[in-house]
Each structure stands twice: as structure tokens, then as C-alpha cells.
Specification:
- There is one protein chain.
- The protein is of the alpha/beta class.
- The protein contains 8 helices and 9 strands.
- Strand 2, helix 2 and strand 3 form a beta-alpha-beta unit.
- The longest helix has 23 residues.
- Bound molecules: 6-phosphogluconic acid.
- 6-phosphogluconic acid binds next to helix 2.
Length: 240
């Protein structure tokens, strides 16, 4: 059964960041109150990056376990590393203990082994749902995390994490899969810019493109977007 996401349209990036941060803080508090911990996966990309400084305060990071939705095949010090970006914008400023952060071993020449180890870390001491909240971005081609169109990762039905060849980028990536992301208690997307408008409309309204399977799941999904990204949505889907 497919559901309909809640779509929140903000007038500016600062407003979007404030609204999304308030939502995530509330989710963290609720998870800690209910289960004593908050398991979140974070996203790479420019839109999520703008959010992270706002999350430094207001989340009890001592109770959090931080995962990453995907990673580029680079060492953690590389400027392209999602881990590095999140460390600089959130983890270091918030003094999150390294024991509470699970990064992909993306520098390992054996990325399949790195993916298997990431899955083991996600399962360690936990039961499904593996994540309280999965935070995701959206690419203009409809990819999310590193679930790109036409890739083998889209067919993965069992494993929670895989290494994948992304031909359109001529590279390999590590990514959580549909079983992990569709199975999160809650999913939040951050989407900005007119170049995402067509992809967002397709994902929400037609159910095509990789992100659609997550966006249209029946459990809670919230899409935080700006007016540009929302500009191709038809009014029936745009409730604000
Ligand atoms: C990554 C991602 C990816 C990203 C989207 C949106 O590339 O590392 O995790 O899924 O979130 O491509 O990125 P932008 O916000 O930069 O467009």
C-alpha cells in the first residue's frame, strides 16, 4: 500500500532549516523518552549540510546513535566525504562521542566487506526498525542516499547496506537500501532548488524514480522543501 507524504513548504532556506530542525529535535526527544535512545541516519548533499549547524543544540546527542545513509568511496578526510562534512558541521561542534557515530569504512578497497560491516553495526544490539529517523536528500535524477536510477542497489530486498557501481558518476558508493530506509520509523526529506522540482513532482505524484518507493511508503514521511522545489507539484498534493 502506498501512502502520501506530508509536504512542508518553506519560504526560504533559513525557514526550512528551522522547521526541519524543530521536527528532528522533537523526534529525538520522543525516541529518547520512549526507548532511551535516538537512532538517526544523516544525508550528504548541500541541503542537508545547511541544516546540521542548527542541530548542534537541542538534541541529546549522548543518547543518539548516528549513521549515514550513504558514502562516497573516499577516506574520511576527503572533501567529498559525507562523514567529513557531517563531522565538521555537526558532530565536532556538538561534541558527539565517536562511540555514538557509525561511519562507513569507505576507504577500504573491499567496499563489499565495508557494506557488510555497516549492516552488522546497524543490527548490533537493535531490532527492526533499525532507524528512528532517516534523513534524506533528493537528486535531480530522483536518487536518494546512493539509490541511483538503474543501479543494482534498487533490487536489494534483504541486505540493509550495499556497495554499488554508479555508472552515471563513474564511481562506487556505499548506501543503505530500501529495506533499511523504508523500514525506518520515520523518514524526512530535505529538498531545495528549482532543479529538483520535476523529480519531486514525479516522485510524489507518479511513484517513479528511486526515491518514490520511500516517499510513498505507508509509514510517516515528511518532505521539507522550498517553493522552488515545490513549484511543479499540483495543488492536490500541495497542502499548504
Ligand atoms: C550524497 C547524498 C545524496 C544527496 C542528494 C541531494 O550525494 O552524498 O547523500 O543523496 O542528499 O544528492 O544533494 P543536494 O542537496 O546537494 O542536491
Amino acid at each position: 500500500m502506498s501512502g502520501q507524504p506530508k509536504i512542508v513548504v518553506a519560504a526560504s532556506l533559513p525557514e526550512l532549516v528551522e522547521i526541519a530542525a524543530a521536527h528532528i529535535r522533537a523526534a529525538a526527544t520522543a525516541a529518547v523518552t520512549a526507548r532511551g535512545r535516538f537512532r538517526i541516519s544523516l544525508a550528504g548533499g548541500s541541503t542537508p549540510r545547511a541544516l546540521y549547524p542548527t542541530l548542534v543544540a537541542g538534541v541529546d546527542w549522548t543518547r543518539a546513535k548516528v549513521f549515514f545513509g550513504d558514502e562516497r568511496a573516499v577516506p574520511p578526510s576527503d572533501p567529498k566525504s559525507n562523514y567529513r562534512m557531517v563531522r565538521e558541521t555537526l558532530l565536532d561542534p556538538a561534541r558527539v562521542s565517536p562511540a555514538n557515530v557509525v561511519r562507513w569504512r569507505a576507504e577500504d578497497p573491499d567496499l563489499d566487506a565495508a557494506a557488510r560491516d555497516y549492516e552488522a553495526a546497524l543490527r548490533d544490539g537493535a531490532t527492526a526498525p533499525w532507524l528512528d529517523l532517516a534523513l534524506l536528500g533528493l537528486g535531480p535524477d530522483g536518487h536518494t542516499a546512493s539509490l541511483f536510477p538503474g543501479t543494482s542497489a534498487l533490487a536489494e530486498a534483504d541486505r540493509l547496506a550495499v556497495a554499488v557501481d554508479v555508472a552515471e558518476m563513474g564511481t562506487r558508493r556505499l548506501t543503505l537500501t530500501y529495506p533499511a530506509l523504508c523500514g525506518a520509523r520515520e523518514v524526512c526529506f530535505l529538498v531545495t532548488g528549482r532543479e529538483k522540482a520535476a523529480a519531486l513532482a514525479t516522485v510524489v505524484e507518479s511513484g517513479h524514480l528511486p526515491a518514490a518507493r520511500i516517499v510513498r511508503r505507508s509509514e510517516p514521511v515528511t518532505i521539507f522543501c522550498d517553493r522552488d522545489a515545490a513549484s511543479a507539484l499540483t495543488t492536490g498534493f500541495l497542502k499548504k
